[in-house]
Amino acid sequence: MKSSVPSKSLGGFTLMEVLISVAIFSLLFSFTAMGASQLSKRLLIGPSDAYLENILITASRRARDGVEASDWGVNLPYDEQTRTLASITVFKGSSYAARDSSFDQTFTYSDNIDFVTVDFSGSLPATGNDHEIVFERYSGETAMFGSVVLEVFGVERSVAISSQGMITREL
């Protein structure tokens, strides 16, 4: 005599399968979230250093082209305490103090961007008050070469200016 025990057909998942699935999805989500966070930070700072680079290039090109037969410069009036600024000015003249203000071109700048270091001291020791850089007429060279380091949400980028007036940024 055969005893027939009805077999149970289980149509669900075991507790172990559910726990493993949840763990895998949690790991995938956390890696994706971290990657998206880093990407968004890089996307926010990218335009910031490119914007600064373009402003510096504007002054450099005006000087090289001899626009108005003058030197051209950039003034970065950042706050020494908060390390932020609201605007940047491209000016005509040998210094910001002696500029022809009728040629000033002001660019607004986000106050979410910190200027970690601004060093336009050239070959001289940094004075801590390096708020401007001037490019010489026709040559575009500058005695105020150096670099600016920006920080947005913990990500730093730098823009460097050589003594020949060449502007480059870290990519």
Concise synopsis of the structure shown:
The protein has 171 residues and is of the alpha+beta class. The protein has one helix at residues 15-65; strands spanning 72-75, 87-92, 105-108, 114-119, 132-135, 146-152, 155-161, 167-169.
* Cα gyration radius (Å): 28 Å
Low-confidence stretches: none
Class by SSE composition: alpha+beta
**Helix share, percent:** 25-40%
SSE run? HEEEEEEEE
| Envelope shape | rod-shaped
What is the first-to-last residue Cα distance? 82 Å
What does this structure look like?
With 171 residues, the chain is α+β, with helices and mostly antiparallel strands. Helices cover 30% and strands 24% of the residues. The chain is built from one helix and eight strands. It has a four-stranded antiparallel β-sheet with strand order 3-2-1-5, covered by helices on one side. A four-stranded antiparallel β-sheet has the order 4-6-7-8, with helices on one face. The longest helix has 51 residues, at 15-65. The model has no long low-confidence stretch (mean pLDDT 83).
Looking at this protein, list some descriptive labels.
171 residues; 1 helix; alpha+beta; 4-stranded antiparallel sheet
How would the blueprint of this fold be written?
Elements: H1 15-65, E1 72-75, E2 87-92, E3 105-108, E4 114-119, E5 132-135, E6 146-152, E7 155-161, E8 167-169
Antiparallel strand pairs: 1-2, 1-5, 2-3, 4-6, 6-7, 7-8
